[in-house]
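Q: Could you fold this chain for me?
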Amino acid sequence: MLDNYFPVFVFILVGLAFGCVPIALGWLIAPNRPDGEKLSAFECGFEPFEDSRMKFDVRYYLIAIIFILFDLEIAFLFPWASIFGEIVKTDAVKLFGFVEMFVFIGILVIGYVYAWAKGALDWE
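A: Sure. Below is the predicted structure, expressed as structure tokens.
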């Protein structure tokens, strides 16, 4: 029974070796000579103007989430479009496949219109 898991165990060991051995070798072999210039903060050659933990506007995150939403829409549309010819050839699936995609696109359009109506896409 455990013979079936041996290749998985070897795969995990090889993966860990590829990840950990170069890091360990770099830590052991590389010279470690820190100085003040190396350890100083770097921002385009100037001293930092403000704290790096400043707050960002929520609109950045909102735009990112909307982008991910519509990016996933394309990820779901692509497989459907690639087999559309096969869907059309089959009479039993022809109408079902077409209607299902319109329902999917309709839900996304409703979400887009809602985001637009709430002002999520307006930038001041």
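A (continued): The chain has five helices and no strands.
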